[in-house]
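Model it.
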Amino acid sequence: MKDYFQSALDDTMRLISHCSVQSEPCALSPFGEGVGTCLRAWAELAASLGFTVNNEDGYYVTADIGQGETFGILGHMDVVPLGDGWTHNPLGEIDGGVIYGRGIMDDKGPMTLCLYAVKQLLDSGLKPKYRIRFIAGGNEESGWKCIERYNQVDVMPKLGFSPDADFPVINCEKGLVHYRILMDAPSGLIYLRGGERGNVVMPHCKAVVSFLVKETEGVNVSFDGEKYTVEAYGTPAHASTPSLGDNAMWRVLDALSVSAGREYTALSEALCDDSGAGLGIAMRDELSGALTANVGVADVVDGKLVMILDVRHPISTDKQDIARMIATRLDAEVEIVHYHDPHYVSEDSELVQGLLGAYNDVTGSNLKPIAIGGGTYARALKNGVAFGPGFPGQPLTIHQKDERISIADFKAMYDIYLQAIRRVCFEQ
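Modeled.
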């Protein structure tokens, strides 16, 4: 049986060479020229391998093979901005046995490996027991409008996986809520601004106040003769794992609480904690683990402090109950502005056991399914899970500079997807 790994690697590098960061809409793509070009390249690749392809006006591409009930493999061709600080070409480079490039892990590499895995299994003479449908979206990183469009014009598969998170298998994704909090600004707070996205740990925060502020570690304080400016820098991280970052607003609130006392101390105690304990919403359950909370955006408008709080909550809890707790604790108005339901597929399901068994067999492991706070395309499927590509214990480079994976691990990933798709999608 021919091994298609090298072909998969070569075509992954070609896809990475397209800078598919969302930009202004154009004639061939609602998500910008780069995304549109990459989706067309994906469509051409799938067609060349024998799949029946449809490009839905640049929103997404489907690639089908086989007949019967549909099994979905969902991923995306768009990527986050390249960012600064790369030591290798962000549009694809292999150096020292390591593959670098935006999308090698998230999500061009895994989707291409899965596509070639299906091709290799078909060429070996195996018969699929499903119509296998790849759905390659163009807007996963910035709003899921590709999935919205798909649901408007087609029927989403009930069963499948998304190669867009971590191994061994993610069968539980917490509820994801963005709360807009509106409350009276503390006394003396003239200006405060920080963050741009609710799902990112705030990397910078600046406040202007009318009272004396003492310098504290990690905070810059200046005085213009009338007002004090307090500024701090932190470390960004995804809001699903806020403990990996350093929220700049925490530093600012700590400095203000030291200088101004009760109002700011109370606010600091409520917000400067990623477990939600200060807000009275710390909770966990056995299936999905602990709640996380992150103030990603803050601003002062007309004497009101406005914040976007990102909360990833256990599947056993309710978003409205959490809103009421926050409102009570802060004496604030709380509105839900964005929400994804929790998602759970039983560990005992045939899908989970098939994927997990393949992973453990190929790697010689004995791992169990895991829960995450992030949101993947698996949520779009009634019975869907996230499956790879991140290996346990490996450095997380997705969304960071020098996104990368070794060629050896990329080959191991291919072998895992090959065995997993054989187990769950083909007659034995």
